[in-house]
Design brief:
4 domains; 9% strand; 4-stranded antiparallel beta sheet; single chain
Length: 702
Amino acid sequence: MRRMPQPYAMLASILLVPLLLGMLGSWERVRARGSVAEYVAMQISMPQQVRAMRELAARDSAASIDLGNPDTVYAPALAADMVEAQLPSVRRSLVLARVQGPLALSVIGGSLLALLCGAIGLAAAQIAARRAMVSRDALVASFAALQRELPLVLGGMVIGLALAVVCGVLFELISLWSSVSLSGGGVKLMFAGVVLAMMAVWTAWSAIAALREVAALYTPQPGAVTGRAVGVDEAPALWRFVQDIATRQQAIAPDTLVLGLTQGFYVTEQDLLLSPGDRAVSGRTLYLPAPYLQFLDEEEVAAIVGHELAHFTGEDTAYSRRFAPLYAGMERALAAMHADANGLLLLRGPLQLADHTMERFDLTVRHWSRLREFEADRLGAAVSGCRPAASALVRTAVVAPPVDTVLEDAFAAPPQEDADLVAMMARMVDEKGWPDIRAYLEDVQSHPTDTHPPTPERIQRLDVALDATFLETALRAPREGSRPAGERLIDDWHGVCRRLSSDYLTEARGAHARHRQFLEDTAAAVPQEAVTLYNNVASVSWVQFGAAVMFAAIGVAIWIFRRAIGFGHDAFAVWLILGICSAAVVIAVAAGIMTRCGGRTPYLVLLPETLSSPKLSAPIAWRDVENWGVVFGTRFGLDLIVEDAVTLPRAQRFARGTRVHKRKRLVTIGAYGVRGMSVEDFQQLIARYFEADQARRVLAER
């Protein structure tokens, strides 16, 4: 989901950050010029100083020179050698200083590029949004222009910011190299500078790579639809019905009619992939939901189809064919860019500019969306009349709940044999009636690209009163009134409904089969026999044995060198220290042996149903574990959150790192680590057992 940028934060990211980088580049430019002038002067003056010092040494061997520090003086010959030895360093520093000049200019240039692109982007978004309010043609033209400009603006911002940051860091790294000595703290400082430069380069490269989505902003994505394309020979009356409406409205007739069970009426020019069969459909497609054809009469369906085809009439055609796909594509691309950004600071400004641009157009799109829906309602009503058009709006609102209920129940528990789901919907309405209309009159109909105005406002625009007489007609029982539109327009209507129901149930069974196979694979991912894990005591025991060796070495060294360290005449002190070292050796060896022996005791014993540990008084069933986590770092352990109704086990005495918190329902089983496993491997193993138990329980419930 796109997050709308706050105005001040947006302006800071888009304008202030490049401005600050430009100021940094200007300061670096001044420093680079000063360094070049200083090193050029030194390169000229130092040979002259060397000659003067050697001449002084020849004249007066007792003379002395301080080289700028009055407290330290040197013989002229030595001073000349010292100054002469500094000449290569000065020449190298001059070369580096001359390199810094172009780097500083690059910082300034990159920041100016980012600032200019950001300002152009803000201005273009403002101007385009204002122009888009003039008309729908202006909306299409403005967005089309923005389509061409926005990738260039975002790319320019990212490239400019990346250039400024990388060159700025390299400038400072060269300054650091010229100013520090390559020893001690200077080396550490240089290393930190190199790491910072590498991070800057990586960040810049990542930001540019993340912008690759801009190149695919408008790449259309085929939509997946469960439905069947209906040819002219299969439903000639339906085709004549649709083409007659298109002719009367002077609209563009659809190339394909698709019948399905899900979704509502809509037209689209998006490429579609129909299932079953994976049939590709392109061009203008009109989607007709079979359940609505069962509950609406022919006049009501004519009003809805007229409404949908009106989107391919007059100036609305440009919106439907050009603007809506581009707008949806940009939304998808920006969502992908946000996902790829991963918190990169260099992308914050460009992304906020893109979000701001889309926010400006969101307001315009909502404005024209409402107007175009009202206009489409008017044209749809011109086909069959205002009252059928208003009745269709009410009836589609109350039809949706029973349709959704039957489809959801059928998908959740598909029957073994195919059933006519449309007939089941009709029986449900016959038995239970329609839902309360008051709960649905304020609903906004779903549509692939637009936000529709509220239903009461649309009915009011049709100049139809929401009185009792109108609602009685709109809320008639399925068997009352004229025959359903589906029966009148499609010869083999019930056969079509059965085939669509079979397709839906087949897809549902396939989804269940795939899910069941996934559950079975997950449940079988753990062995039936016990898996025993052991504490990784090797490293700890070697540390303990190493401590024993260290204390023994200290004792031996004190005994051998007791006279050299001043203990030759103090036997008590020698024996006291030897006693302490001996005790430390014994304790360290004993601790190492105990740690080694403890490593032979299992840490965890994993079974498909339970987890147990010698450190706990009782095993824990996987079904009783509400949540879990592996803690590592300062300590290592497995944390288990146990269900409230379950009796908690007790921690055994002397069980290191193992605790039971009754109030938190937390069981922590500590260890040094798991022998032969990394932390990631251990986490994956516990996850497999936890998920396997959940999968078994789901399978058992089924």
